[in-house]
Design brief:
With about 240 residues, this protein is of the alpha/beta class. About 40% of the residues lie in helices and about 15% in strands. Helix 5 links the parallel strand 8 (about 165) and strand 9 (about 215). The chain is globular. The model is unreliable at about 20-40 (pLDDT under 50).
Length: about 240
């Protein structure tokens, strides 16, 4: 007990009250953190994939990986950057804008460009861009070749687990589902993997074996993307 200016204070009771209040605040903080985490989709594993594939709701501008792969349409004033592509460009201090010129990186179908991001810009150690060509005539079928390029370039760069984002929507084309795009990407990816396996069996491959893939998609597109990947896996299993 402590008396001061006529007031009596129970020190033990005061300490117990503050301790209880602190514990309550800590519990509230934990509950809030858990609630927030539940609203952020995590990685979704795709079953029965010969090469482990997971779908992750994350922007390619925010990944931490050895290799992040994105796609860009033909370099022209009509093909502006949106969403994650604009975020990536901003973090690179406008570098994508500076290289997206017909006389520089034209963004032609199948054209590639490797960027080593400056320190403290992107989390990815390397950024590979694959050209998609003309946006007006684009169809998901182009993405089969993109899937092949993804696999082969990752192996040639010595990356066993690349991250891939098709960035079709952020490139301004929204008339195809993410599932249609994902189906073609994975078809090409598996095709390149099977070719690589034949080369390995013949001791004729010098590339690193790609052993996993993380496929990025918007949170609302996880389901459609997964369906597309599963269709590609089912088709490959029938061959």
């Amino acid at each position: 007990m402590l008396s001061y200016l006529g007031c009596t204070i129970n020190i033990v009771h005061y300490v117990d009250t503050m301790t209880s209040l602190w514990k309550a605040l800590m519990l509230l903080s934990m509950l809030l953190t858990a609630a927030i985490a539940q609203n952020v989709p995590g990685a979704v594993d795709v079953a029965n994939a010969p090469i482990p594939i997971q779908i992750l709701a994350r922007s390619p501008a925010d990944t931490e990986t050895d290799l992040q792969v994105i796609c860009l349409f033909r370099s022209s004033a009509a093909n502006t950057l949106h969403g994650s592509l604009a975020e990536t460009n901003e973090k690179l201090k406008g570098l994508l804008d500076r290289i997206r010129k017909p006389e520089l990186f034209g963004g032609e179908f199948g054209e590639t460009l490797l960027i080593v991001p400056p320190k403290n810009s992107l989390g990815a150690k390397k950024l590979l861009i694959i050209g998609l060509g003309d946006s007006q005539t684009f169809s998901p079928q182009r993405m089969e070749l993109v899937g092949q390029v993804l696999y082969r370039e990752a192996g040639n760069l010595g990356i066993a687990h690349p991250f891939f984002a098709p960035t079709i929507l952020d490139g301004g084309v929204a008339k195809f589902t993410t599932g249609q795009v994902a189906e073609e990407v994975i078809s090409g990816f598996l095709r390149a993997a099977m070719t690589d396996q034949i080369l390995r069996d013949a001791n004729a491959s010098g590339a690193v074996h790609v052993s996993a893939l993380t496929y990025l998609a918007g949170a609302k597109n996880i389901g459609s993307t997964r369906e597309g990947i599963e269709k590609a896996l089912a088709a490959a299993a029938r061959k």
